[in-house]
Design goal:
With 139 residues, this protein is of the alpha+beta class. It has one domain. The chain is 17% helix and 40% strand. The protein contains two helices and twelve strands, in the order H-E-E-E-E-E-E-E-E-E-E-E-E-H. A twelve-stranded antiparallel β-barrel has the order 1-2-3-4-5-6-7-8-9-10-11-12.
Length: 139
């Protein structure tokens, strides 16, 4: 990681609200896309973008349900239509069961061609999948 990127990450970490831990999500250019802390999703400016509830419900910042990530890895929209799947090994599938990406154990997020499209270091696989499917930060 370049020195300037490390400095930017450190400044972002120091500017985080009190008590927030470093569960940062980065895009492929290592720019901070946002944070996940205790189920709350923040953008890079620390504004609340949504919530990931313990039961897998995904809400927007107004607390309206926008989707679900079920315990079996099924990802559904707010109408309960399946839009994808996340396997235990981190493989991300679309609703047709075609591989669209991977959430690696080290937090690296890759597209189906194995090109890195983002990083979710210290973020759970479920929360990283929620960001991929519902918040669109990682491209």
């Amino acid at each position: 990681m370049k020195l300037i990127t490390k400095i930017i990450a450190l400044v972002a970490l120091l500017a985080m609200p009190a008590g927030m831990q470093a569960q940062t999500i980065y895009n492929s250019s290592h720019a901070t896309a946002g944070y996940v802390k205790d189920g709350t999703v923040y953008n890079s400016s620390h504004a609340t973008q949504g919530y990931i509830r313990n039961d897998g419900t995904i809400e927007n910042s107004s607390h309206s349900t926008i989707g679900y990530i079920r315990s079996d890895g099924t990802v559904q929209n707010s109408s309960h239509s399946t839009i994808g799947y996340v396997r235990n090994d981190g493989t991300v599938l679309n609703s047709s069961h075609s591989t669209i990406g991977y959430i690696r154990s080290d937090g690296t997020i890759q597209n189906s061609s194995h090109s890195t499209i983002g990083y979710a270091k210290g973020v759970s696989q479920r929360d990283a999948a929620a960001v991929l499917f519902f918040f669109g930060w990682i491209r």
